[in-house]
């Protein structure tokens, strides 16, 4: 696990072989250019960020999170940008983040899905809340994690070392690395980019089609009614 400071500009590439990802830390001095075919996920820790995308400008403020597909340009800001290459996501913005997560995680932690996978397998952005006086069970993840400590303090234990976690630090956790988060008197609040998922809607099952009934029967799954190809026009 590597640690970085949000005030030190840097870029790191090739962070996951299966799900190509890179880290950009603009540190308030560098623009971030999102290339076509890539999508940026991130969080504004301090100040403001101007997003230029699809001919429109959108101002994001401290405490907001985002998903922005390329081509796009982000003005210099202080925070985190995790870029998923070879993936075109949707422009989404949100915040502020609720203090407690909506979902039960492990050992008393909670989490929220800030930006969901558009389709099962797609990238996502998550929020993790670690309460005070908590010691996580050591565990791993099958893909890289890029996170920013947005509030609080604690530490992370890996098989090699103890790493201090404080607000304003960014970490890159390689796939399959054993680790655990720990707190003492302060909680930890963390925003984390995941380059993939095993959760989300599919063409066969999603809220719209699951709750569409013909003769009282849901059209989820295989059936002759489902659209065969997504297109702007349907051939007669």
UniProtKB/TrEMBL annotation:
UniProt KW Translocase keyword: no
InterPro entries cross-referenced by the UniProt entry: AraC-bd, RmlC-like_jellyroll, RmlC_Cupin_sf
UniProt cross-references to Gene3D superfamilies, sorted A to Z: Jelly Rolls
Domain AraC-type arabinose-binding/dimerisation: 133-190
Keyword terms, alphabetized: DNA-binding
The protein's name in its UniProt record: AraC family ligand binding domain-containing protein
Record organism: Chromobacterium subtsugae
